[in-house]
Hints:
alpha/beta
Amino acid sequence: MEKKPNIILFLTDDHGQWANSAYGNRDVHTPTLDYLAANGALMENAYTPTPVCSPGRACLLTGRISSQHGLHDYLASGASPEIANHPWMGEEVLLPQILHTHGYKTGLSGKWHLGGENYPQADLDYTFTYGMGYPIYHQGDRTFYENGKPMDKTGFMTELLTDKAVEFIRKEAQSEAPFFLTVGYIGTHSYWSDHPERLVDYYRKQDLDTSFQDSIYPFGIQNLESTFDSREDPREALAQYYAAVTHIDENVGRILDEVQALGLGEDTLIIYTSDHGLNCGHHNIWGKGNGTLPLNLVEESVRVPLFLHFPGVIMRPQRRVEFVDHTDLFQTILDFTGIELEEKVRTERNYPGRSFHSRLVNDVPTGDWRGYQCCEYGDVRMIRDHRYKLVRRYPDGPNHLFDLEKDPRETTDLFNAADLQPVIERLTAQLNDFYDRYADPVKSGLNVKKLPRHNTSESWRDPRNLH
């Protein structure tokens, strides 16, 4: 029987789609990700279903949206061991569990953020995590956890996570079984400081485009609870952020080099994405969906990079324009392994995603693809097509309509424009249809009670208080 492919999933925290040279940013250097794009597929319209850490990760690893799995905001692991160690995904079937059941050796090096931080459960054969300690600094001393055992290490977080990822790959290269490894980098997460000085100094000296930092988000206020002092010097913060991106890119390269050196290049599917996007002063926002009150779903918050590379299997190069999100990626990964879930499981889980595998391997469309993308954050929902974007905040608004063709910066609200009411009606019907089909009435974001509320400083940290 033909061996299933190895899979390395890079799931970086807070890496916005815009912060990649392959997506058109001329300031940031990402040669490794450029290589993946040039020799694989780049998805131009890739999204997270929910623009904040824990839910975004849960959507990818469960293949289900937040209104199905019930996580609507990040788990404040550092605030409470009870929160950190609660089995939040106990009712879900996660991707590593499925792959493990079908013979994969499974590993994680880096961020988990779905509960059980010191020793993540999910049929993972190997784990190396940074535990519950908070705040998370990008260099220095820290207690990590290898298979649940504490281990003190010093250095740059990105490099330490790479070291353990390489160890896992070297070990599993000797096995007959395929492996699935998730590498959870966090270098692009705030604080925007303490990255390699050689890289930061380079970006400090460049004439960086900071014009996007001049725009103002007119539909809310900056949520200072979600930001850090480092953003008070926007130029320095951007240099640090770009340095983090380049540092991650270098370490992705280290892992790709190891795969090649071990002779695994033709047998390994490489995927790079992020749990959600990030604003670095875009719209005057520092952060993601919770960077403002009310919560936002601006494009920089919900768009993610997505590169797929599999020599001899994925046609190259491809720049695909379909709307895809992490629930689609879940199905696509399964398709690459040849694993077919039982019909009973598919029915019970009511998966909203759809595999785009066939489009990558032979460019033969399998039926029409959806012409819209939906996202949510608690009781805020959005839908967009290739021109218009509708944002609805339940139950009382404020609601917005943007013409992204004429107003890509989302500055002019057209919700009350008389001539666009048919557009609003059409998009609202599609939005309602999507969530009517997939949302669990008990776990729906419309039942959220403790997320940061509209124009208040009330904050939510414990998912058990959602309903």
